[in-house]
Recover the amino acids of this structure.
């Protein structure tokens, strides 16, 4: 802004209520001031609408906003700027039943130490630029942007606050198409939007950067704190606490992208996406915390539909939902998890994701009580996974390697598709390695407990050690240096290489060597008498719309 460029021969005009200055009313000083002049206002309340046209002015109070009040006295607008550039400092603005500041014709505003109180729209800008520092927007009401409405142009807000504003869209800030917003060290509380963006609403192609801010106790239908439609949002070092919405308790995006760095989402609530919900967009999150958020349906922390996900170094803890309390991704374009930590999320399958492809490099889980920690559908590669409290279920074609999986019920389970499990350790109380209707091939895998179960498809154990557990209904082969010291075999097992060793307990099944790579004969205990009853084949319940005991179920419609 060029307001700060000094102009020659500037005059300072003094306005005092008691008549000791140059003028007793602010508008009288504005009318005679020339470009670059300064109007200094003494303490008191000055009533009436003000208009500044086609000039550069500084309008400031002598003693600050606590003692100097501009009152519009019920006029439609308190202060109107037409092709004017104004530095405004040190006032409280009130106007019962009317608006605050309105700028037109590319006016520029620099505001400091202003309090906007109870206005029908505190600041409205059709284009141009505005910056606010150490300002407060309190108790405003409007259809769009009770605090700030920028239909176009650029707005910067620094070290300021918004409190108790209400609107249909963006109670604190509304951005029109293509508008730009920077919020730095700003606090928002109690914002209410009847439609979208409890605090901030961003229209198509708008852009916002939010740094070191806090949003608390906001609400809307979409995006309790922030909602964007075809826009781009970047948040850094920002906290979202206790906001609620139907979709996206803190942040909602439709056809938009959200980038979060080192931010915190805590105790937000929604039907889907307790903290964040994105539809046909993207989320890039680095080192953020999602704690104690809740969804009444899916995605206690994050819900994504037809979107892209990149998450690195983030922590999802104690989030709650009936299904997928940590992360739900539906029909994703691509999903990447790197160094993500899951702790004590409450609900069935903390992570359920459909994506083509998935890339997971480092995922740890502890403190959950569920059949499976994660269900991955689509395709992709996982490495460095470490779970102590639940297994992994796959519906698609995946490679999993260099991981340690411990499950209360399942270890690694293939619902459908083909999965290769390499250089990993697996254990479970029920089934360590299993297939419902897919194929599982292992190599350099150790099964500590839980054994192997195949209800359909095939399981190939290559270079694999099964230390303890039942080999049940194995529809495949055991090959290549495999060692099995386990419970009864139920079903037929084919030994493909004679340098493997099988030492089962007696069971109801057959082990058949098919070829030999050496003269050594495999050790077998085959053809033992059948037990009195054959154990049932464990498998995950089939997803249904009602009950949905295994994952989100059939209700996976888009919003």
């Amino acid at each position: 802004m060029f307001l700060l460029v000094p102009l020659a021969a500037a005059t300072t005009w003094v306005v005092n209520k008691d008549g000791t200055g140059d003028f007793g009313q602010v508008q009288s000083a504005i009318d005679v001031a020339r470009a670059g002049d300064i109007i200094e206002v003494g303490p008191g309340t000055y009533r009436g609408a003000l208009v500044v046209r086609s000039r550069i002015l500084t309008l400031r109070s002598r003693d600050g906003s606590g003692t100097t009040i501009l009152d519009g006295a019920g006029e439609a607008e308190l202060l109107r700027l037409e092709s004017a550039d104004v530095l405004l400092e040190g006032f409280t603005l009130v106007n019962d039943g009317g608006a605050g500041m309105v700028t037109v014709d590319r006016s520029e505003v620099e505001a400091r130490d202003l309090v906007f109180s109870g206005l029908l729209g505190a600041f409205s800008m059709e284009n141009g630029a505005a910056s606010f520092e150490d300002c407060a927007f309190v108790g405003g009401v409007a259809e769009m942007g009770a605090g700030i409405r920028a239909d176009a142009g650029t707005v910067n807000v620094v070290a300021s606050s918004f409190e108790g504003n209400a609107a249909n869209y963006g109670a604190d800030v509304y951005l029109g198409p293509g508008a730009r917003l920077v919020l730095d060290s700003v606090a928002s509380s109690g914002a209410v939007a009847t439609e979208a963006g409890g605090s901030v609403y961003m229209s198509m192609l708008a852009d916002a950067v939010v740094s070191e801010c806090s949003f608390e106790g906001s609400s809307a239908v979409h995006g309790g704190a922030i909602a964007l439609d075809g826009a781009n949002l970047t948040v850094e070092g920002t906290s979202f606490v206790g906001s609620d919405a139907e979709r996206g308790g803190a942040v909602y995006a439709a056809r938009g992208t959200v980038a979060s760095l080192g931010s915190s989402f805590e105790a937000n609530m929604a039907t889907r996406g307790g903290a964040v919900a994105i539809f046909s967009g993207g989320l890039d999150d680095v080192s953020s915390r999602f704690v104690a958020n809740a969804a009444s349906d899916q995605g206690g922390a994050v819900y994504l539909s037809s979107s892209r996900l990149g998450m690195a170094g983030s922590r999802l803890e104690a989030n709650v939902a009936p299904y997928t309390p940590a992360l739900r991704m539906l029909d994703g374009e691509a999903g990447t998890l790197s160094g993500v930590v899951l702790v004590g999320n409450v609900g069935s399958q903390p992570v359920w994701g459909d994506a083509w492809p998935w890339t997971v490099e480092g995922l740890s889980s502890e403190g959950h009580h569920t059949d499976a920690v994660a269900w991955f559908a689509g395709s992709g590669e996982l490495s460095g996974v470490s779970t102590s409290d639940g297994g992994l279920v796959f519906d698609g074609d995946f490679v999993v390697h260099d991981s340690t999986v411990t499950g209360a019920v399942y270890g690694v389970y293939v619902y459908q598709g083909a999965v290769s499990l390499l250089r990993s350790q697996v254990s479970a109380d029920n089934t360590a390695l299993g297939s419902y209707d897919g194929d599982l091939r292992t190599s350099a895998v150790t099964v500590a407990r839980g054994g192997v179960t195949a209800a359909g498809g095939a399981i190939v154990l290559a270079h694999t050690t099964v230390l303890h557990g039942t080999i049940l209904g194995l529809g495949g082969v055991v090959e290549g240096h495999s060692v099995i010291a386990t419970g009864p075999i139920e079903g037929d097992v084919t030994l493909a290489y004679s340098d493997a060793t099988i030492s089962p307990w007696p069971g109801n099944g057959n082990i058949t060597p098919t070829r030999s790579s050496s003269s050594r004969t495999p050790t077998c205990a085959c053809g033992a008498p059948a037990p009195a009853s054959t154990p049932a084949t464990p498998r995950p319940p089939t997803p249904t719309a009602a009950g949905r005991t295994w994952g989100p179920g059939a209700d996976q419609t888009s919003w």
Q: What stands out?
A: The first strand starts at residue 12 and ends at 15. The chain has a mean pLDDT of 88. The helical segments are 26-32. Residues 360 and 522 are 39 Å apart (CA to CA).
